Amino acid sequence: MNDKTIAPYGSWKSPISSGLIVAASIGIGDVALHGDDIYWTEMRPADDARSVIVRRAPDGMMYDLTPPEYSARTRVHEYGGGAFCVGGTDGAGVVYFSNFADQRIYKQAVMPHSDGAGAPQPLTPEIDMRYADGEICARRGVMVCVREDHSSSWREAVNSIVAIDLERGGSRVLASGASFYSSPRISPDGSTLAWLSWNHPNMPWDGCELWVAALTADGGLGERRLVAGGPSESIFQPSWSPSGALHFVSDRTGWWNIYRSAANFDGVEPVCAMDAEFGKPAWVFGLSAYGFASDERIICAYTQAGAWHIGDIDTASGALTAVPTPFTDIGTLHVTPRHVAFTAGSPTMPMSLMRHDLVDGSTTRLRSSNDVSPDEGYISRPQPIEFPTENGLTAHAFYYPPTNRDFSAPGETAGDGADASATGGDGGGAVGEKPPMIVISHGGPTSAADASLDLRKQFWTSRGVALLDVNYGGSSGYGTAYRRRLNGNWGVVDVDDCVNGANYMVAQGLADADRLIIRGSSAGGFTTLLALTTRDTFGAGASYYGISELEALAHDTHKFESRYMDTLVGRFAEHQERYRERSPISHIDGLSAPMIVLQGLDDEIVPPNQAELMVDALREKGLPVAYLTFEGEQHGFRQAANIRRALEAELYFYSKVFGFELADDIAPVHIDNLGGTGEG
User: Fold this and answer.
1) CB count, 10 Å around CB of 278?
2) Domain spanning 5-17+374-676 has what CATH number?
3) Mean pLDDT of 264-284
4) How many C-beta atoms surround the C-beta of residue 554 within 10 A?
5) Which residue of 27, 204, 403, 438 pairs with 517 in a disulfide if CB–CB is 3.0 to 4.6 A?
6) Which residues contact 37 (CB under 8 A, 6 or more apart)?
7) 50 bridge partner residues
8) Across 22-36, 460-474, 525-539, 569-583, least confident range
9) Is the pTM of this model over 0.90?
């Protein structure tokens, strides 16, 4: 007997509120191991979006190290990552971190037998420099790191690798001349430095170079030697084995696999050759997908068909043994001879910090990105799907059916949501009313959607809205050829795949063709805007700091991405017409769908003028549009109040556009041109 309440999709009452989501949510960032201690950063939306370094001692006690007036976050490449590192002796570490407000490196002593750390002391001078991706070399008394020099307004920021004296704070440039640097890593005996570099217009996942050089007695570098990489070979995570063999990940075969260099750096060989990815796009510093339990044993994370796994590699034979886990997503992974610390999630568990014991095989969850545990009756399980797209190719996505144990839609007979893999003939699944569906276009664009539990997605599905999270061509996790589908075709392949994914779900009977929505942030916002201006598939959209005009972006963005579009679109000097053709603002005449636009006013990556161009055009065209701006937010919303407001505003907007009643009490949003009144 079905005792559920019958209510239209979108009108279901859900316990997963925006307030609940932000109150209990954190972002787990950088992870570091030091002896038996585990350190990590937590971005806390409820605490003014501060990034706090946390230490877990061997006895299991956890301590906040970062005082309230500090935030451990770097702005190198704007996206940051690698904001801290740890030196000192076991149990009495010294933390070195980049402070967000002034971007200086601070030194902070850890108290081994108390609940905190000493007061941070500035190590680098008060000058416009940024630091990231540091590693301590105790033998030489230095921290080797990436430095980004913003001290001159008349030129582009200058990137280099520097050595910072741990006592006096003075720095020495070790490597310079390339556009970008990352991953400076010192051999165990302190004799050799390895690092990555690349030049405009490449991004590191397009092609970069792995270099080594001896560290000289006076602290400089000897003769430099190229080990691997080039303009079309991407290198990820150089690492030294305990005995000093240089390892790295390369996509030279079409998959990011692990390699090692010969003892004299004369040639390389694969450690484990598989049609799998052991790396990911380095949008941030400090990513790690493998580490050494010993010279003979590598513990790694790898992905196949969009799902992540943990593997145990015998370095002599190259044999990989899969480690059974319930996880589908692995963020970063660090290894000692005794344990593995990694971030992981699954369809029923949000991204969390985990500890795996290499001796007894036990796995413990140390910290969750969200401590809320809704009843499983409100949780939609993502279903990986493949669907046909242009040129006879296949694209990928995760489908989330509407799921709420308390509600059914009029005429619904498929229980808690239809199964995309179980539909037949005319689509099966739900009959009668079909649900509205949000198609999510992820950012990057070279990143990927994942299947770990995210209450922001469940916010929608528990209210009766289906989701399709699309890994369009260009996404990572499916090999180099799939990732490069977007080269020269940004604004074509991504839009095609989102449109074809939506149409596929409609054909399966799992979505209402008249209530399709597309939403995305940053590069995903660009795909959203272009889909709304050049196609008639979607009835509404939401753009979070999306790109509306490519030429403006080409001349007004930060250094890291300033030439990214050379690969995605083409060199501007040679393809100006293509830039205009691919810009959503050029197709405003084709736009007939309402839109909500959300923008951080301090965004240096996609400046507010990008949003304002589209909003002004929508207003002039007479289409319903809501525009919400957020003071103090950069690229990605971090403050709890703003995250909550954005989520609720988007729901309110869709309810007005598609005419369904809300079960939530939400503050109204001003909507221009709605019903001719200009009010929401």
Assistant:
1) 27
2) 3.40.50.1820
3) 95
4) 19
5) 438
6) 55, 56, 57, 58, 86, 90, 91, 93, 110
7) 44
8) 22-36
9) yes
Question: DSSP class of residue 72?
Answer: B
The 8 Å CB, 24+ separation contacts for 104-109 are 104/129, 105/131, 105/134, 105/143, 105/145, 105/164, 105/169, 106/70, 107/166, 108/65
Residues whose CB is less than 8 angstroms from the CB of residue 657 and which lie 6 or more positions away in sequence, other chains included: 539, 540, 594, 624
pLDDT at 422: 35
Over residues 285-332, the pLDDT tens digits come to 999 999 999 999 999 999 998 899 999 999 999 999 999 999 999 999
List Cα–Cα distances, 640 to 27, 50, 335, 349, 634, in angstroms: 12, 11, 33, 21, 14
Per the CB < 8 A criterion, the answer to whether 309 and 322 are in contact is yes
Q: Is the pLDDT of residue 81 over 90?
A: yes
How far apart (Å, rounded) are the C-alpha atoms in residues 248 and 240? 9
pLDDT of the residue at 91: 61
Q: Counting beta carbons within 10 angstroms of the beta carbon of residue 219, is it exposed (0 to 12), middle (13 to 18) or buried (19 or more)?
A: middle
Q: Give the dihedral sign, CA 90/75/241/139.
A: negative
The residue type at 173:
V
Cα(508)–Cα(52) distance, rounded to whole angstroms? 46
Whether the CB-CB separation of 138 and 127 falls below 8 Å is answered with: no
**Dihedral of the alpha carbons of 668, 672, 678, 680, in degrees to the nearest 10:** -20
Q: Which two tokens stand for residue 624?
A: 């319903």
Residue 423 predicted with pLDDT over 50: no
How much is the average pLDDT of 378-383? Answer: 97
How many Å separate Cα 650 from the centre of its chain?
A: 22
- What pLDDT, in 10s, does the model give residues 554-581? 887 889 999 999 999 999 999 999 999 9
**pLDDT the model gives residue 413:** 55
Q: Are 4 and 406 in contact (CB under 8 A)?
A: yes
Distance CA 234, CA 74 (A): 24
| Residue 51, beta-bridge partner list | 43
Distance CA 529, CA 541 (A): 8
Taking only the tens place, the pLDDT of each residue in 591-605 is 889 999 999 888 777
Question: With contact defined as beta carbons under 8 Å apart, do 256 and 247 qualify?
Answer: no
Q: Judge contact between 536 and 457, C-beta under 8 A.
A: no
Torsion of CA 372, 375, 377, 382, to 10 degrees: 30
Per the CB < 8 A criterion, the answer to whether 611 and 548 are in contact is yes
With 0-12 CB in 10 A as exposed, 13-18 as middle and 19+ as buried, what is 264? exposed
- The helix or strand, by DSSP H or E, that contains position 440, with its residue range, turns out to be strand 437-441
Cα separation values, 442 from 398, 520, 527, Å: 12, 6, 9
Residues 57-75 have a mean pLDDT of 94
Using the predicted structure, report yes or no on whether residue 415 has a pLDDT greater than 70.
no
Q: Which stretches of 528-601 are assigned E, i.e. beta strand? A: 540-544, 595-600
Where are the domains positioned within the chain? 5-17+374-676, 288-369
C-alpha to C-alpha distance for 328 and 185, rounded to whole angstroms: 29
